[in-house]
Amino acid sequence: MNKTFEIVYKAPEDLIPYAKNAKKHPEDQIDKLAGQIDAFGFDQPIVVDSSNVIIKGHGRLLAAKKLNLQKVPVIMQDLDEYQAMAARIADNKVTSLEYDAQMMGFDLGTLQMHDFDMKLTGMDFGEIETMLLGSEVERENGKGIDDYADSHDETDIRQLILIMTQEDFEPMVNGLMEIQSAESLDNNTEAVKFLIEFYANSKKN
User: Fold this and answer.
1) Is residue 82 domain-shared with residue 59, that is, in the same domain?
2) Residue 130 · residue 99 · CB < 8 Å
3) With contact defined as beta carbons under 8 Å apart, do 32 and 26 qualify?
């Protein structure tokens, strides 16, 4: 069943943290959340039950207090005690997902190239380095970004960044997805390789 929710604005001090919340929120995480809210706005409401007890968004509440915000966006859900408890567990579980390192590396590389404030991604330098270099194994072997500055041949990972307008971007992505599906390819890299090989073979004929 699809549900729609009304967003209301409440003072942070009116919201009640769940006493047995299992998710930890270290200070550096709150600093990151505060930086993101300050940069991008409070675009993810806090979810509470009918008694204003938080179901989702304890970290965002702490960040709001750190920023001295007077009002925060809130969604109220009419859940009983056990539904709310299950919703908290589910939220913590589904947000712990693995990344597609290739796709994440592309976005991070693009932001870095444009001198974007990388702290606003919520990732630590080590996490960014891992994504850009391609694997955690290389970091465990003591290699850092500076190790590849003069001799990038030490790694098999390469990154190709294409800069284009939004008008060109959407048909490009849609086209690559169509090729992936039609040719049963694993990712965009395989789709681009397919296009290049197709063009090369067509020139030979």
Assistant:
1) yes
2) no
3) no
Query: 8 — alpha (psi -120 to 50), left (phi > 0) or beta?
Result: beta
- Strands, sheet with 72-76, edge to edge from the N-terminal-most edge strand: 7-10, 72-76, 46-48, 54-56
Structure pTM? 0.55
Query: Count of domains in the chain?
Result: 3
Can you give the pLDDT at residue 189? 83
Q: What is the mean pLDDT of the chain?
A: 79
Does the CA dihedral 36-38-42-48 come out positive or negative?
Answer: positive
Which is nearest to 129 in space by CA: 138, 82, 96?
138
Residue at 62: amino acid letter: L
Give the number of residues written for the chain. Answer: 205
Residue 179 resides in a domain: yes
